[in-house]
Every structure is written in structure tokens, then in C-alpha cells.
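hiii so um. not sure if this is the right channel but i have a protein structure encoded as C-alpha cells and i wanna go backwards to a sequence. like what aa goes where. can anyone help
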């Protein structure tokens, strides 16, 4: 397990179990396969694609919105 995965697990445990949040959302740039894979590894569901929301290196990029509920996290 890499540093990013460990950090994400700590963040999600804190968010759901300590702060008692019900839902976690995160955006991943289209093409960032490593981050998308990590989101899916935690059980996050792709909820939508937001088109041309980030301007990077002279062009607009799309983002994928991932979501995870507390119940989904606990089941995983």
C-alpha cells in the first residue's frame, strides 16, 4: 500500500467515523488513471463527468466526480 492509499484511508476513516460525515466526493482529472484507480479501490462510484472545468496548460480539462457514502465505506 502506497503513501497516497494510506493517507486516503486515514482521511476517510476520520471523515466518516470521527466527523460523522455521510458522503465523500472527490474530483479526478480525465486521464489521471492512477487516482481514478485509487478512488475505485476504496469503493467510490463515478457519479458524473464535469466538462471543461479546469484550465491547465492552455486548455480546459474534464473532471470525473467520484462519490462514496459512509455505508459503502463500512461495507468495503
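sure thing!! here u go:
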Amino acid at each position: 500500500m502506497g503513501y497516497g492509499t494510506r493517507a486516503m484511508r486515514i482521511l476517510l476513516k476520520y471523515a466518516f467515523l470521527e466527523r460523522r460525515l455521510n458522503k465523500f466526493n472527490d474530483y479526478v482529472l480525465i486521464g489521471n488513471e492512477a487516482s481514478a484507480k485509487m478512488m475505485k479501490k476504496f469503493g467510490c462510484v463515478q457519479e458524473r463527468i464535469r466538462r471543461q472545468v479546469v484550465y491547465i496548460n492552455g486548455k480546459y480539462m474534464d473532471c470525473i466526480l467520484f462519490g462514496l457514502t459512509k455505508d459503502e465505506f463500512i461495507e468495503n
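oh and Helices lie at 3-18, 33-41, 70-75.
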